[in-house]
Each structure stands twice: as C-alpha cells, then as structure tokens.
Amino acid sequence: MTLDVTDLTKTYSSGDEALRGVSLSVEGNETTAMIGPSGAGKSTFIRCINRLTEPTSGTVTLDGTELTALGDDALREARGDIGMIFQEYNLVERLTVMENVLTGRLSYVSAWQAFRRSFPPEDIRRAYDILDRVGLGDMEDKRADELSGGQRQRVGIARALIQQPKILLVDEPTSSLDPETSNTVMQLLTEIAAERDIPVLINIHEVDLAVEYADRIVGLHDGELVFDGTPSELDDAGFDRVYRGIERPDADTSASTPADSESAAPLDADPGRSLPGEP
C-alpha cells in the first residue's frame, strides 16, 4: 500500500496559505510522525488526505486511486480504506464503547441497518477482538462519557481498525493525555502498523515521542516540508529548519542528535516536554 501526495496546497478564503506544495509518500508498515510548530499545516495536511478539508490544488493517491479526483459517492467509499483517529476522539458520548466502535462499519451496512445500529455477527465478533487488542476487552458496555481520556483514544483506535483500513491517519493523539498514557497510545499505534502491515501517519506535537516511536520523521514549517529523515537524523540543523525556519548549511548534520542538543528553543511550541536524555 502506498500513499502519494504531490504538490498539495491549501489556501483559505482569508488568503492564508496553510500548505505550499507539499509532496510526501508513505508505504509499507512505516510509522511516520509529522512535527512542526503550531500553524505549520500539520492538521490541514492530514485532513486534506481524506478531504475532510478540501485541498486547493495537488493530488492525493491511495493504492492507485486518486482521492482528489473522486466525486462524493466514490469518495465516501474510498474513505473506508482510511482510518482516521481524532485529537478530540469524536465519540458519541451517550453510546457504549461497542456501539462507538461499530460506527466504523456504518458505511458497510444498509441505511436501515445503520439507523437501527444492526450489524452482522461477523462485525460484532471483530469488534470484540479489536477491543481485546486495544486493552478494552471488558469495557464494551460502558458509555463513552464514563471513560478516561486514554480509554477514549483507544476506542477511537478500535473504531478506525474495524474499518480494515489501508492506512491510519492520526491527528495529535496524545495532546490531552498524561505521559504514561501517551507512551501506551504511541506504542499501540506502532504495533498495529507492524501487525496489520499498514502505514501510520501521525501529526504530533511531542517531539520526544516522535523520536522514540516513529520510523520516520517529517517536519513542516509555514506550510512547507523542510525535513524528512529518520529520528537519528533529526539534529540541531533539522530542529532549526522545522521550528525556526532557519537553514544552517554549514552545520554538521551527523554530529548531534536531539539527545545531544543543548538548545531547547525548538520545543517552545510544546512547553513542558523534554528530549530524551535531557532533565
């Protein structure tokens, strides 16, 4: 499975340019973390892939299907291949955990079945299996509004997985979670990528989590792709490009890693976080 994004731009009616010709490909079972300061265009990029936000120009192709060329009906069907995990969870508070998970199958049942929330036995069995996998096997009957933040996020992951997607798009999954739960969620996402052999693209503010869990890091600054490499390649020069928009062509990009950096300035966009190795 390959996602190809080519020359993606997004200009809002206000004239603000959120994306400026971003091109990116992800494939296999790679976990890719997208980092950058607030307003860099990370969430816009994620949402443009499945056209929750309509791009101004450029193409998005998933497994040979150009999503940006699809009409409404075809796009609705294609979205079944794209699992989306939201920062704010997007759960129906009054529904149970099981009912929320099964909403991931709504596009696969008739309108009458969807209205009655009547799902085939195969979908229900799969939902139980997935809830076990995300650590919620004994909570299927709890209402969503009774759950902690970490539990809600795992319901969101389970809802995306029951779609049997070809890719997972994840928008700031740890922004409202405590450090221990954040690590649990990131580990779960990377394990799922390997187990299901699908790529995971994560928009994330916590750079230390990106460095620890991602196979690849891409950085946006002011709507442009300014870094693409492995976690070990994210050195001081990379941080300057991503968080300051500063190019340092004379820097030795192999000499330091985030753990060696003495400058915490790039992390000003996410106060309270430190890099691995820092106090």
Please provide a written account of the structure.
- This protein has nine helices and ten strands.
- It has a six-stranded mixed β-sheet. It has a four-stranded antiparallel β-sheet with strand order 2-1-4-5, covered by helices on one side.
- It starts with a strand and ends in a 35-residue tail after the last helix.
- It is globular and about 55 Å long.
- The protein has a single domain (2-269), classed as Rossmann fold, CATH 3.40.50.300.
- Helices cover 31% and strands 21% of the residues.
- It has helices spanning 42-49, 72-78, 97-102, 111-116, 121-133, 149-161, 179-196, 207-213, 236-244, and strands spanning 2-11, 17-27, 31-35, 57-62, 65-66, 82-85, 167-171, 200-203, 216-221, 224-229.
- It has 279 residues and is an alpha/beta fold.
- Pfam families: ABC_tran.
- One of its GO terms (cellular component) is membrane.
Q: What string gives the helices and strands in order?
A: EEEHEEHEHHHHEHEHEEH
Shape descriptor reads: globular
CATH architecture: 3-Layer(aba) Sandwich
Average pLDDT value? 86
Amino- and carboxy-terminal Cα gap: 40 Å
Structure classification: alpha/beta
Compute the number of structural domains: 1
| Poorly predicted segments | 251-279
- Biggest sheet overview: 6 strands, mixed
What top-tier CATH class fits best?
Alpha Beta
Beta content? 15-25%
Determine Rg (CA atoms, Å).
19 Å
